[in-house]
Amino acid sequence: MVAETEPSNIETQFLLEALQRGQRTDGRGIYDYRTLKITGGSTPGLVTVQLGQTRVMARVSCTVTRPYPDRPTEGIVQFNAELSSLCAPHVDHTLRSQEVTVTRMLERVLRQSRAIDTEALCIVAGHKVWALRVDVHILDHAGNLVDAAAIAAICALRRFRRPDVTVDGETAVIHDVRDRNPVPLSIHHTPVCVSFAFFGAGELMVLDPSLLEEQSRVSWFTVTLNAHKEVCALNKAGGVPLTHEQIKRCVQIAVAKVDEINEKIQDAVNI
User: Fold this and answer.
1) Rounded to whole angstroms, how far apart are CA atoms 210 and 195?
2) CB-CB neighbours of 183 under 10 Å
3) How far apart are the first and last CA of the chain?
4) Which of 214, 209, 234 is CA-nearest to residue 223?
5) How sure is the predictor about 122, in pLDDT bands with cuts at 50, 70 and 90?
6) At 51, which helix (H) or strand (E)?
């Protein structure tokens, strides 16, 4: 029997009635985050993140390539998100569209916020730069892929080490990692995503939505902050508008949560 992609009307009604009483179907409080576990792989740049039952793996790799003509002194950073066919009971076009959503959010959160020093990836201006590729694999989808993917990606980037390079004029020698210690990437700051889901007419809100909550929401809102409590990005999707007070409340909650998440990121990176 094929699992249904959408919750039944009874499930949705039960969820909304529970939220109106300040309860959630998984027993959490309205502003509770699920248990976050970050595990570094044996290979630098390989990280697995588990957020509740949502599990994501990120891997960073690098190659030498020519820079873009309009940015001759900057390296290239590319993101790609992929859902495993086993990540959910039924993977359909709706879930597949989340690959694009996650990829675009990673680009906005990590690249457009200038979290990565792309100029430090330049080897020979106009000729050779490092091209980083961040592959995010969704292993288990139980809700809130954006937050889990963003944590996995930034942890993988901070744990990654590229080969050392010696430059003489326009000649570059890339040293084997067995001959010289590889070099960490230059990371300006560590963005963290904190996502919210809204229900009904937008008056009900939860932090870190589960898969059932995501399927029943009318809109969602993601706040991206770094360790300095600076807002890196705000992203709103869905048809129900949010008031200024709702946005302000979300940012306040995100500020309180970002310290806890950053502490776990630091522990994982320092292992």
Assistant:
1) 11
2) 15
3) 44
4) 234
5) very high
6) strand 46-51
